[in-house]
Amino acid sequence: MGLNWLEESLLRNLKVGSVVYTWCDFCKPPKDKFLLVASVSPRLLVLVINSEVNQFYVVRGLSHFHVLVPQEEQTFLQHDSHACCIEAIDAFYLTFMRAEVLANYAAFHRGHLTYRCLKDV
Prior knowledge:
Layout: H1 5-12, E1 18-24, E2 31-39, E3 45-50, H2 55-59, E4 66-69, E5 81-84, H3 94-103, H4 105-108, E6 109-112, H5 115-120
Antiparallel strand pairs: 1-2, 1-6, 2-3, 3-5, 4-5
């Protein structure tokens, strides 16, 4: 059965620049994280959004690969955060993301980065 117009509209919102909130097994320790969709084709890639730059990267001189995501521009954040642009992660399938959008849009899809912030990323 095909999607209705609302489902199609919600799925169109899942694009580069979307921020989602989901459980991440690849984090140590595993936890819910904000993720920035960096690519949807040819494969789904995400960047992790962290509350602060991990000391591991600071010590290695890699803190400049973290882009500030200001809370005042991103209504879904409770404080300033940073997008880690060192590694794009392919831990999810697009089918998973689409299923999460359709199952609980408001809890999963938190919004989009502002143009200025996305340009910095």
